[in-house]
Design a protein that fits this description.
67% helix, mainly alpha, globular
Amino acid sequence: MQPSGPSSPSCASTSDCFPLSHRSSAQCGSESPDEAQKHEVRANNTPTDPFRMTSVVRFYICYLLCLGLGLACVVCVCVWNSQWRGGFAWDGTTLQFNWHPVLMVTGLVVLYGIGAVLYRIPLTWGQNKLPWKLLHAALMLITLILSIVGLCAVFDFHNAKHTSNLYSLHSWIGITAVALFAMQWVVGVAGFLLPCTPVSLRALLKPVHVWMGGSILWLSIVACISGINEKLIFVLSGTEPYSKLPSEAVLGNSLGVLIVAFGLVVLKILSNQEWQRPDSRPEDLAYTPLLREESE
């Protein structure tokens, strides 16, 4: 008989070792101590008890509401500029200007908000974070491109009409939001996706990145609301007064309400500690450069 010794670690089920992914028993037994500890942390944060399951259900209700409000914002701004403002073109006329509200609402508000809550989706917990990092960066890049094209549309329109640029409070807030977002994206890629970034710098950037993300979203919402109000005053001044609340004014005001509601839901998701990715909480942070992230 062989002398008895400490039994090797085994997994009662795949969910005990890797809660949200299917792994074989052999893989579980061959984990390194660091990986086993990381999986244990995630197992402890997996929503298995009734309270956690209720929290997940509440998250998905808020997430579906977020997607629905975002879709409503895009549809509303497209209908406004296609039905009431004459459609779209790229010829220096008001039809070119119509691209500006559509691209800014779609990009700097809706896509930005959806990309911001990406890490909160419980289905991503316990999985390799690399694909979600890349998807987050890609969504934000698309947002940045749409925002820049939206700015080009309004600048070209103003230049063609010999109108001054950046003279209103709306334009000041809007250009500030886009400039901060561009810097946020560059710093985010450099700080969280490059393998040469020091761990200490990543830890320092994390709270700043999160705070800046919420601040940029609010600036974008304020810019959109002020832009909607400014546009309605301009286009309705020579026809039916804005104070009479014609159908176009009702649509524009409704768009503003939808944008605010979308922003509130996004910020609710971002501010709820229960919905943070388990390995993103302060006690579980593990800042691993992109190219060294294999299986988390």
